[in-house]
Amino acid sequence: MLKLETVSKKYRTTEVETSALNGVSLEIAPGEFVAIMGPSGCGKSTLLNILGLLDSPDQGAYWFFGEEVAKRSERELTALRRTGVGFIFQSFNLIDDLNVAENVEVSLLYRHIGSSDRRKRVAAALERVGIAHRAKHLPHQLSGGQQQRVAIARALVAEPKLILADEPTGNLDTENGTAVMSLLTEINDAGTTVIMVTHSLVHAGYAKRTVKLLDGRVVSETQLAA
Amino acid sequence: MFSSYLAAAWRSFLRDRLYALINIIGLAIGLSAALLSGLYIHNELTFERFLPGYEHIYRISAAFAPPGAAPTPVDSSPTDVAPWLRGHMPSLQAAARLNIGTDVVIRVGEVDTLAHIYWADPEFFEIFRFPAEQGDLLTALQRPDGVVLTRSAAREFFGRDRVVGETFLLDHEHTMRVAAVIQDLPSNTHFKFAMIGSSRAEFCPTAALDRAPAGAQKPWDSNTYFRLSPGVTLASVHAALDQFIEEHRPPPGKRTGMKTFLPVMPITAIHMAPTGAAAMRDHGSVDMLYAIGGVGVLILIVSIINFVNLSTARAARRRVEVAVRKAVGATRGQLIVQFMGEASLYAALGAILAVCVVELALPEFNRLAGTDFTFDYWQHPDLLLWAGGLTLLVGLLAGAYPALVLGSINPVSALKGGPVRAGGLLRGALVTAQFTVLIGLLSTIIVVFEQTSLAKEQLGLLETRGVFAIDTDCREFSLDRVRALPGVIAAGCSESAPVGFVKRRSYGVVHAGVSSPYRREVVGSGFFEAYGLKPVAGRLFSPDRVADAQSVILNMTAVTRFGFASAAAAIGEFVNVGDDGKPLQVLGVIADFPLESVRSPIEPTAFSPGDGPLRMMSVRTRLGQETVALGAIKDLWKQVQPFRPLSMYPITQALQDFYADLVAAAAVFGACSTVALLLACTGLFGLTSFAVERRTKETGIRKAMGAGRGDILRLLFSQLTLPVLEANLIAWPICFFVLRRWLAGFAYHVDLGAEVFLGAGLAAVLVAWVTICGQVLRLAAVRPVTSLRYE
Question: What is the ipTM of this complex?
Answer without folding.
Answer: 0.84
